[in-house]
Amino acid sequence: MSTIQIAVFVTITALIAFATYMHCRGKLGEGHQSEKDYFLASGGLKWYFIAGSITLTNLSTDQLIGMNGNQMALLAWWEFAAVAGLLILTFVFLPVYYKNNCTTTTELLQKKYNDKNIRALISVLFLFGNLFIFLPAILYGGSLFLLSMVGLDTGLENLLIVAVVLAIVGACYAIFGGLRAVAVSDTYSGVLILGLALLVVFLALQAIDFDLTGIPADRLTLIGSNDSPIPWHTLLTGMIFIQTFYWSTNQTITQRAMAAPNIKEAQKGVLTAAGIRLLIVPAIVVIPGIVSYKLYGDVGDAAYGRIVGDVLPLWLSGAFAAALAAAVLTTFNSILNASAALYVCDIHEAYVDRPTSVAKLSAIVSIAMSVLALLLVPFFASQESLINTVQELYGLLSMPILSAFVVCLLFKNVKAGAAMIGVVTGVAFYGFWSMVWEPAHYIHGMAVTLLLSILTALVMNKLAYGETPVFALGGADTQGEASPEAA
């Protein structure tokens, strides 16, 4: 890495940190006394910070590196489908979260089922996904990009060194700033990375004279064959459920939308994020990868870092490295902050005690998860495709979790125990489908898993609890006062 690249990288990184500090400096001490303050920024996020934070929390290395690493247009479907997921969050889930005054998405489950155990179970599944899938994947992808872009060896030793630095800095944001600092840094970084990513698209196409001839048709089509990463028929089954889960029930995403002063401000932010997802993101996550196939051949996850290093002028490559590092950091610290919220609010307070310091307990959780995530980086370094591995693994948790939300929103008179049986059944079934049986694509498996989990919950509610589920849009009414057992 040249002196110019290093200077630009350090300067931009420092400016983002300083701007974040200046925006949050009067709100970093007193505001950490309660869960609402620390995890929901005291309900003070404006729509533009919500839009920026949602966009950059998702747009990190698993998207830029993983999707471009497939080197085909087909992966854009993840982003097109995400727009539908954001619309479902805006008009279906956000009104419910705000009506029930939720700090975490899982709090809704406790209020609907009047049981703290289902809230804890779903939180544990979320925490497992964050710890074993998302955090190490983000550290690996970010480290790979930075090393690839500057032409350094991408061996495991170098990957781990960079990953350690990213984890330390990202944890500091989450620990010392809470959600407010995370969201503000997300937004500043997001403006930079979206602008530079669009510039990369233009310069990459310019490098091949805007001529895509010679690239195989299967790299350019949006209609996936049966053996492609996204067969066309999966768009009709599990894809929409994946997006509903990710955008509407995943604490890491919805936490931003739940931190607005009111639901109108929240909806404005989410709709802005949907517009960015539709108009900007698809191009930046597939076009550079397609161009890199023409320039370098099938180079996999190293494609994006390599083409960025080649098409950007020296000083701008330093700026892009800073922007991508910021994306890694903000996604990493967003997941840490959401994970701390889940542990503190859903597990520690329910089964241990109310903490004397929310910030201190959150810091302990964040540090522990950062260390464990670093230990899993070698596993992701051994995978053929980062994005496909992440999506497939998360099916173990996503559809079973979504089933608990669907049941409580569509039915009343369903016991929490029945819903939990459905969740556990779904985890076991998807594991068998994807790792042993493999009768069809894993996205189809997700749709089947969701339906099985819901059906199991409804049947077990009748067989084990003697209660007949009643269809009622909106589900059971929230209990005004939770029972001692539920609290």
What proportion of the residues form beta strands (DSSP E)?
A: under 5%
Total strands: 2
Based on Cα principal axes, name the global outline.
Answer: globular
Q: How is the largest sheet built, in terms of strand order?
A: 1-2
Secondary structure elements and pairings:
Elements: H1 3-24, H2 35-40, H3 47-58, H4 61-70, H5 76-99, H6 105-113, H7 116-149, H8 156-207, H9 217-220, H10 238-248, H11 251-257, H12 263-279, H13 281-296, H14 303-311, H15 314-351, H16 358-375, H17 377-381, H18 386-410, E1 411-412, H19 416-437, H20 442-463, E2 470-471
Antiparallel strand pairs: 1-2
Description of the structure:
With 487 residues, the protein is mainly alpha-helical. The protein is 75% helix and 1% strand. It has a two-stranded antiparallel ribbon with strand order 1-2. The chain is globular and about 70 Å long. The relative contact order is 0.18.
Key phrases:
two-stranded antiparallel sheet; 20 helices; mainly alpha; 487 residues; disordered C terminus; globular
Give a quick summary of the entry.
The chain has 487 residues and is mostly helical.
